[in-house]
Amino acid sequence: MSQHDYPELTDIAPDHEEASTQAPPLAQEPEGAVLELVERGHRLAMALPVFAWPCTIGRAATNDLVLTDPSIGPSHVRLHQPQAGHYDVEVLDSTNGVWHGRRHYQAGERFAWQPGQRLTLGRGVQLNLRSTAQPLTATQRWRPFSRAQGLLTAMALVLLVLLSAWTTWLGATETGALARQLPAILLWMLGGLLVWALGWSLMGKLFTGVTGFWRHVCIASVGMVAMALLDVLLSVTGFALSWPLLSRFASLASFSLMAVVIWLHLRAATLVSARTLALAVGGLLVLGVGAKLGLQWQTQKRLGDNLYMSTMLPPEWRWAPTTSVDQFMQGTDSMREQLQNRSQLEKDDDEEGDDSGLD
Question: Whose CA is closest to 248, among 192, 196, 309, 296?
Answer without folding.
Answer: 309
